[in-house]
Amino acid sequence: MSDASQGREWTDDPETFTGALDDLKSEGCLLLVLESAGSDASSAGCRRMLGDDTVDDRRRLFVLTDTEARTHQGVRTADHGTTQRAVAYRTAARNAVAASTNADEVPTTTVRTDLDDLADTVESEVAALAPADGFEAGQLRVCLDALDELLADTDLLDVLQFTKRLREAVTDANGIAHVHVGTHVPGIAVEGLLPQFDAVVEVADDDDPRQRWHLPDESLSTRWIEL
Predict the structure, then answer these.
(1) Does any domain span residue 1?
(2) Which residues contact 205 (CB under 8 A, 6 or more apart)?
């Protein structure tokens, strides 16, 4: 990760980081997951960010933009207390393959137009997932599988606007969303979107799956942590 905040004092104090992370979980947040293609660490990190099924009434939304993948790494058969939905972005211009969510019971809405309609659909699906008495903090988990695809096919300003709307939809519900992007994506494109994200999570599996977190607003980074 390139440091766009050079000159600031950064800390990796565990207690400070834990407090900042608790704030993100309670207020809602959007996370950028920086990964290598096909990384085992990416799959492990995704599953963790989606939350476990032991929490009563978990709600998950998968936003599927990867035109090459036929399945999504994070979708799994949910326990009885978990509700899952998916949105697949499959425009004709992108020559997309048919998408599967791995779990046949996950209702999937397909968007075939543009990012404005994708954002509209995400907002509608979040509303459809909402419990009658509203979301509890962290109850909603959202995953977007491939920001790379949007950056490759769409103007950066359009992707920025979509990211803003995704963030608003999730944080208004006090949810936690994470967006996957490959390390091969040009840094200038990613850095243009960084202000929309509360944290950047690097994942790697050179030896063992591991992650480290960067919270720019708090000038916080962690050491590598095993997944």
Answers:
(1) no
(2) 36, 39, 40, 41
CB 217 within 8 A of CB 69: no
Buried-state track 109-145, b at ≥16 Cβ within 10 A, e below 16: eebeeebeebbebbbebbeebeeeeebeebbbbbbbb
Say if CB 43 and CB 205 are below 8 A apart.
no
How far is the C-alpha of 137 from the C-alpha of 210, rounded, in Å? 26
Structure tokens at 124: 């509608």
**124-157 pLDDT, tens digit each:** 999 999 999 999 999 999 999 999 999 998 999 9
Higher-pLDDT residue of 219 and 168 is 168
Asked, for residue 200, whether it belongs to a domain, the answer is yes
Residues in a beta bridge with 11: 220
| Residue 4 belongs to some domain of the structure | no
Question: Is residue 165 within 8 Å of 123, Cβ to Cβ?
Answer: yes
Cα dihedral 63, 69, 73, 74, rounded to 10, equals: 10
Q: How many domains does the chain have?
A: 1
Q: Which residues contact 103 (CB under 8 A, 6 or more apart)?
A: 75, 76, 77, 78, 84
Tokens at 1, concatenated: 């990760």
Q: What is the pLDDT of residues 173-206, one digit of tens each?
A: 999 999 999 988 888 889 999 999 999 999 987 6
Using alpha carbons only, give the angle 182, 110, 152 rounded to the nearest 5 degrees: 30
Q: Which CATH number goes with the domain that contains 111? A: 3.40.50.300
